[in-house]
Design a protein that fits this description.
Shape: globular
Structural class: alpha/beta
CATH topology of the largest domain: Luciferase, domain 3
Number of domains: 2
Radius of gyration: 24 Å
Distance between the termini: 43 Å
Strand order of the largest sheet: 6-5-7-8-9
CATH architecture of the largest domain: Roll
Number of strands: 25
CATH superfamily of the largest domain: Luciferase, Domain 3
Largest sheet: 5 strands, parallel
CATH class of the largest domain: Mainly Beta
Number of helices: 19
Length: 566
Amino acid sequence: MPEVYTVKVEEGRLATDGKPSVGPVYRSIYAKDGLLEVPSDFKSPWDFFRDSVKRNPNNNMLGRRQKTESKLGSYTWLTYQDVYDAAMKMGSAIRSRGVNPGDRCGIYGSNCPEWIIAMEACNSCAVSYVPLYDTLGPNAVEFIINHAEVSIAFVQEKKIPSVLSCLAQCSSNLKTIVSFGSVSTTQKKEAEGHGASCFSWGEFLQLGCLDWDLPSKKKTDICTIMYTSGTTGDPKGVVIKNEAFMAEVLSVDHIIMLTDRVAGEDDVYFSFLPLAHVYDQIMETYCISKGSSIGFWQGDVRFLLEDIQELKPTIFCGVPRVFDRIYAGIKSKVSSAGPLQSTLFQCAYNYKLKYLEKGLPQHKAAPLFDRLVFDKTKLALGGRVRILLSGAAPLPRHVEEFMRVTSGSTLSQGYGLTESCAGCFTAIGDVYSMTGTVGVPMTTIEARLESVPEMGYDALSNVPRGEICLRGNTLFSGYHKREDLTKEVMVDGWFHTGDIGEWQSNGAMKIIDRKKNIFKLSQGEYIAVENIENKFGCMETALSHSWWLLWSLKEKPLRIGQKSTI
């Protein structure tokens, strides 16, 4: 009998009073005695950062490639102490502008050290940070500033003009703009004309000091309001409190501790997935909590792989289209090496795959071939990666299999939403039978399926299928100023994800459909969007690799269970 990775904690029930039937409630075997909770001495994500500074003040924390007029050099680093000092000064400067605990601060720009420093500055003074980004649609930045009542914003230098362009419509809220870099005299005057002040990074830093009394923090304080797109209408502000954010970080650590090797001071994380989304924020905060180093990409997809080769990360989080690109690149190199090398590679591949399928862990499946063959394929990600994570959309099974065999790393595919504070399910990296699934519930979450009769999904059948519903310690606290929308998705304490899952025999979850992709026609018939997309799926192959790579990095990543609308 295969090992089962979930435990039942409640029985299911048949449909009653017009409510659909629901399946049993399950939690991970790693939380069989109760869901993981945040220890009483942790009040805010600031505690993770502060404690790491105490332990590792001189360890590299944030790095970027040094630029000269002619070329890019190696990574240069800020230590944990450097970042702490900058965050403390920035936090003090935020307070000097009349921004108080509980107020909102916008952060607008690509991943870079300034993004993290601004985030930690907000954490230091109990100010809720609100990522700003324009990929949610026209006028999204203006909408978010006004809806969240953002009073101060840290903005990437090249994004300053777009903020100034909407300042006339946001002037009742936004009073302070801080550039990640410099700011021109003209831009300062334009901001002043709308009653706001505009500072360069250095100027704002000078307003703060190191020695000031940090305000008290509570687990129930709002950590961040993160806006996501809906199917129609304005973006929705997902409210995430400190306790949910911290519980997610601790759950990541808990799962990796039990099934792999946790991050440490020697680990290096590659930051390129948007920090405006919760997926990367959680992973970077996890790395910060463990004293690891974080290296940022240049922000240009053309040089993504070059940045990886220079940084040589040990932890890599990606989206399926990036892994698909790596898969295609390795396959191309193998086939171009000639018939003999291709045959030898395939023999090594088949041998290792056979032993992975038998249940052997990554490092024991084929150690000889790892040294002779797969050490070369590892170089696609710099040669040092030991933990691979994939999320945001379904990872094709053949790509997942290929990466598990050739990367020399464990690989976990996960599933989550902003409303679940990133991952709510994760595959166990060294359990090959979880290939093609999103794994088991995180140790902070309980899950059940709810039947969807109109789609033919029965949560109580021999193969349970239905809408995935969640409850636990890492759920959001509602949509900002939209109680009506909150009530639609939170029913009797359960968050309805809108995604259709299927429990596997080993307790893993497989995403098979999307509830909201079903539409009822005027004559009463139901149709699935997937059926239409599948008919025209071949059109997607006509798009260039550069387009779909750009899509996955620049646009809002798709949730698992959703399909691209390209």
